[in-house]
Design brief:
The protein has about 130 residues and is an alpha+beta fold. Helices cover about 25% and strands about 30% of the residues. The model has no long low-confidence stretch (mean pLDDT about 95).
Length: about 130
C-alpha cells in the first residue's frame, strides 16, 4: 500500500455508501489522530483502538447517521496532499472548506488538528484532507 491515508479515507467512504454501522481499519499513529479529530468534530459516533501485540492494531469506527433521514454525517472525504504531490499551507493561507462549514485536517508541528485550530494557534502544515 503506497498511501495509507487514502486507503483510510476510501474505506470510510465505502462503508458510508454501503450504510455500514461499524468499519474496521488497520491503525497507525496518524490515522488514530485523524479519527480523534473526526470524533471531536462530530463526524463519527465513536471509535475504539484495538492494539495487537507487536503490531499497530486496528481502529473500529462507529459511523454516525441521522435517525430520520438515514443520511451520514460525513457527506464527502477528499484527499488533498498525496505522496506524489504534497500540499502545504502556511498560517496565512489555510484552506476554508465550504466557506467554514466543513473542516480541513492538517498535520502540523502541534499535531494533527483542524484548519480552525491551526488558524487560532497561527501554525501551518500539510493539508491531509477535507471533510464535510
Amino acid at each position: 500500500m503506497t498511501d495509507p491515508i487514502a486507503d483510510y479515507l476510501t474505506r470510510l467512504r465505502n462503508a458510508i455508501k454501503a450504510k455500514h454501522r461499524i468499519v474496521e481499519l488497520p491503525a497507525s499513529n496518524i490515522k488514530k489522530e485523524m479519527t480523534r479529530v473526526l470524533f471531536e468534530k462530530g463526524y463519527i459516533q465513536n471509535y475504539k483502538f484495538e492494539d495487537v501485540e507487536n503490531y499497530q492494531g486496528n481502529i473500529k469506527i462507529a459511523l454516525k447517521y441521522n435517525p430520520e433521514t438515514k443520511k451520514s454525517a460525513i457527506v464527502n472525504l477528499t484527499r488533498i496532499s498525496k505522496p506524489g504531490l504534497r500540499k502545504y499551507a502556511d498560517a496565512e493561507n489555510l484552506p476554508r472548506v465550504l466557506n467554514g462549514l466543513g473542516i480541513a485536517i492538517l498535520s502540523t508541528s502541534k499535531g494533527v488538528i483542524t484548519d480552525k485550530e491551526a488558524r487560532r494557534m497561527n501554525v501551518g502544515g500539510e493539508v491531509l484532507c477535507h471533510v464535510y
